[in-house]
UniProtKB/TrEMBL annotation:
This is S-adenosyl-L-methionine (SAM)-MTase. Transmembrane segments: none annotated. It comes from the Bacteria. Signal peptide: none annotated. InterPro entries: SAM-dependent_MTases_sf. SUPFAM superfamilies: S-adenosyl-L-methionine-dependent methyltransferases (SSF53335). It comes from Mesorhizobium ventifaucium.
Length: 237
């Protein structure tokens, strides 16, 4: 991935694959749940989904009434077409972008979302700094895949375009060195539905129980040995 054009080429037809859409639909439910957990009742009138994919998160935000005015920017042409097809009532703007330069004025949104985007981005800080320019606050979510078995994580996640791998500490450091103030950072396990989608009903239930109990009773050891997710609410310093 040498430049923005190469990234656009990789993701241009990404959302024409129905298997990707099914996975993202389930993943979006758990991400919106994470957003609600971290926001703790805070409300935001204008919300921008940065790297909106095929619109699964936007659709759920609209149905839940989270944000009176929604906006989206997406790198993929197939993603934009999928978002348009959803006909989301509160979606006021939908734009393509190059992954680094968001076509909106400074502080024009109250909250920006970057959900499972940063792990795909070559220049993470450039991306986050422009997101902070446009949005007063940001919710950023990434997978925590930098475990003891990093080799497996790279092998499994590489085909999905993951080029950055995080621990809770390296994720927090990325946010702070991007000029962001971390207001809250939480580690999450996968929802049961997501585990079962990937591993099947019985094995998925076992993985769900193991991952959630491990995180509950030994969080530092858990994140060194199993993959989780981290979500952070941030504001510009």
């Amino acid at each position: 991935m040498a430049n923005a054009d190469s990234i656009i080429a990789i993701y241009d037809d990404y959302y024409t694959d129905g298997k990707v859409a099914a996975k993202r639909e389930i993943a979006s439910k758990q991400s919106v749940g994470h957003i609600e957990t971290i926001l703790e009742g805070q409300t935001f009138e204008r919300i921008l989904d940065i790297g909106a994919g095929e619109g699964a998160v936007l659709d759920k935000l609209n149905k839940k009434g989270l944000g009176k005015v929604l906006g989206a920017v997406e790198i993929s042409a197939s993603g934009l077409e999928a978002i348009k097809a959803r006909k989301i009532a509160n979606l006021a703007s939908l734009d393509i972008f190059d992954g680094y330069h968001i076509p909106h004025p400074d502080k024009s949104f109250d909250l920006g979302l970057a959900i499972h985007v940063v792990e795909h981005v070559e220049h993470e800080r450039m991306f986050l700094m422009d997101a902070a320019r446009v949005c007063k606050k940001l919710y950023i979510e990434v997978p925590l895949e930098h475990t003891r078995n990093l080799t497996k994580a790279i092998r499994m996640s590489g085909p999905y375009g993951h080029i950055n791998f995080y621990t809770p500490l390296t994720f927090e450091n990325l946010l702070k060195t991007s000029g962001l103030k971390v207001e809250k950072l939480t580690t999450f396990g996968h929802d049961l539905a997501y585990e079962q989608h990937l591993a099947g009903r019985s094995k998925g239930w076992l993985k769900y129980k193991l991952r959630t109990e491990f995180l509950k009773f030994a969080p530092k050891v858990a994140v060194r040995n199993m993959a989780y997710m981290a979500g952070a609410l941030c504001s510009a310093k």
